[in-house]
Amino acid sequence: MKQFEHIDAVQAASWLKEGAVKLVDIRDPQSFAAGHIQDARHLSNENITQFLAETDKSTPVIVCCYHGNSSQQAAQFLIQQGFEQVYSLDGGFGHWRLSFPFVSG
Q1: 1, 15, 39, 99: most buried, per Cβ within 10 A?
Q2: Rounded-to-integer distance, Cα 59 and Cα 87, Å
Q3: Which runs of consecutive H residues, i.e. helices, occur in 1-105?
Q4: CA nearest 13: which of 104, 89, 82, 91?
Q5: Contacts by residues 79-85 (CB-CB < 8 Å, ≥ 24 positions apart)
C-alpha cells in the first residue's frame, strides 16, 4: 500500500471487533477525553514518536478525526513512516457516534 485507503464505520467496527487493527484518534485531548471509540488510542505530536517505535509496521491502522478530513493527512503520514496498511475513517468520529456507542473518557 503506497497510499492510505478509506474505510467506513461498519467495516471499521467489524475489524475492531475482530481485533484485527489498531485505532488512533487524532482529535484534540479535550474532545478525546469527552468521548472516543472504544479501544482508540489518542495520537498527538507528543506521543507520535512512541507510537512509531512500539507499533509493528505490518499492523493495520485506522485513523479517526472529527469529520474524516484531517485523518487523511495523518494516514498518509503513517504510510510514509512505513506502515503497510493505513485507513482513514470516513466521516470521522462524528459519523461513528451516530451509528455506534462510544466510551466517555
Answers
A1: 15
A2: 11
A3: 9-18, 29-34, 48-54, 70-80, 92-99
A4: 89
A5: 79/1, 79/2, 79/3, 79/4, 81/52, 81/57, 82/57, 83/55, 83/57, 83/59, 84/1, 84/57, 84/58, 84/60, 85/1, 85/5, 85/58, 85/59, 85/60, 85/61
Give the model confidence (pLDDT) of 46-94 as tens digits: 999 999 999 999 999 999 999 999 999 999 999 999 999 999 999 999 9
Mind telling me the catalytic residues? 65
Query: If 0-12 CB within 10 Å is exposed, 13-18 middle and 19+ buried, where does residue 104 land?
Result: exposed
**Contacts for 65 with CB less than 8 Å, ≥ 6 apart:** 25, 26, 27, 71, 74, 89, 92, 93
pLDDT in tens, 9-53: 999 999 999 998 999 999 999 999 999 999 999 999 999 999 999
Q: What is the pTM assigned to this prediction?
A: 0.93
